[in-house]
Design brief:
The protein is mainly α. Helices cover 73% and strands 4% of the residues. Helix 2 (38-45) packs across helix 3 (49-61), helix 4 crosses helix 6 and helix 5 (107-126) packs antiparallel against helix 6.
Length: 223
């Protein structure tokens, strides 16, 4: 008779380490273009290199780091020009998704939207940009899922991976979370009413407004 299997307490360790490294990247301790040293990270996190390697794979999967053959793993680096182009393309795909979502949203989906919007409002009140960013991702993901388009989903996910570092900075500036969620509510209201053209327009406005907020944030940081 086979012995029962028990989950190892270390099974969640790579995910925990990935979250810690992600926070260090977002905080600017590891900057775009920096190489991640497995041995140094293992020493810092008090673990072996195996969980570090798995954590780095998780971060590569969400686009925060990239592996370069025979050189190592580096924090993803995207130029300002590339970032602006990706934002423009993302606006088009998100507009398409919102238009389709307005055709498909159910009462259950509306409850999900309202829950996420309320969570983001609370994050604004608490000044919790970490929570806001994670729930913001869920809000956008819900719209993409309601588009019922795998191709749009793949393209959008690729753009999101490229923009993580830039977008995360956007919510650290006072007022940006609140402005963002006002735009979210406008998108939701259009989707809720089945107003396809308005949903598309509001979604594109939201992405382009985020682009402008990010440019202002980056400008402030270089002064």
């Amino acid at each position: 008779m086979p012995h029962p299997t028990h989950s190892s307490p270390d099974q969640g360790l790579p995910a925990t380490i990935a979250e810690q490294i992600k926070r260090l990247i977002y905080a600017g301790e590891f900057k775009p273009g920096d190489r991640l040293n497995e041995a140094a990270l293992a020493l810092r996190m008090g673990t072996s290199r195996g969980p570090i390697r798995e954590a780095i794979r998780i971060l590569a999967g969400i686009g925060l780091v990239t592996a370069v053959m025979n050189r190592g793993v580096f924090v993803r680096q995207v130029s300002i020009a590339e970032m602006l182009e990706i934002y423009d393309l993302r606006a088009l795909v998100f507009g398409f998704a919102a238009e389709r979502a307005a055709e498909h949203a159910t009462d259950e989906d509306r409850l999900k939207f309202e829950f996420l919007l309320d969570q983001m409002d609370q994050a604004c009140r608490d000044g919790d940009d970490d929570l806001y960013y994670s729930v913001n991702l869920e809000f956008h993901a819900l719209i993409l899922s309601l588009a019922h388009s795998q191709r749009a989903q793949r393209q959008y996910d690729d753009y999101v991976k490229e923009l993580h570092l830039f977008r995360r900075q956007n919510f650290s500036k006072p007022g940006n979370m609140k402005k963002s969620n006002i735009e979210h509510r406008r998108i939701y209201e259009a989707i809720s009413k089945g107003a396809t053209a308005k949903a598309k327009a509001q979604a594109e406005i939201h992405i382009r407004s985020g682009r402008q907020r990010l440019l202002a944030t980056l400008g402030d940081a270089t002064r």
